[in-house]
Amino acid sequence: MLKQILGIVIILLVSFSAVSNAQGRMGFVGKIFDKNEANILFGEVKSSVELKPNVLKQALLKAKDYVVFVVKNGRISIVNEKKQVLAGEVQTVTANETMHIFSKDKVAEFVSLIGSSSIAVEDRGTTTTLTAGAYTLEFSTQCPPMCFE
Fold first, then answer.
1. Among 9, 83, 91, 132, which one has the highest count of C-beta atoms within 10 angstroms of its own C-beta?
2. Which phi-psi region, left, alpha or beta, contains residue 51 (left: φ > 0; alpha: ψ -120 to 50)?
3. pLDDT > 50? residue 119
4. What is the pLDDT of residues 48-87, one digit of tens each?
5. Bridge-based pairing state of the strands 31-34 and 75-79
6. Does residue 38 lie in a domain region?
7. Strands 99-103 and 85-88, how do they pair?
8. What is the CATH number of the domain that holds 97?
């Protein structure tokens, strides 16, 4: 009986530890919308850059808790919390550039929904979204002002 209780306690502790670490210190960031709903909520797309799903999948394999997108000169860089390039166009990311932060878990969920559809990283004036197929990922945290340092 004591072994069973101890086993249950250990399982619960491991489960809670995994859940608390999965979201990172900024919590879960991002929400997936239906593409039509996103168009209504966030407005029209001003410009977009294509991102291949395999590039995003490669970044997810290297990311810890967050995936950070930077669009500069029509090119996409995907970096981690420390601004280390995970995938995409290799270019330096500086502290004063606008970055869009999503939880790794939300990006992985988005990738699982879209399959092999091409992804558009979209500038909508006041926000940046990722859209593919019938889905749009938004509610990123923008850095600055909310950064990891």
1. 132
2. beta
3. yes
4. 999 999 999 999 999 999 998 988 888 888 988 888 888 7
5. unpaired
6. yes
7. unpaired
8. 3.10.150.10
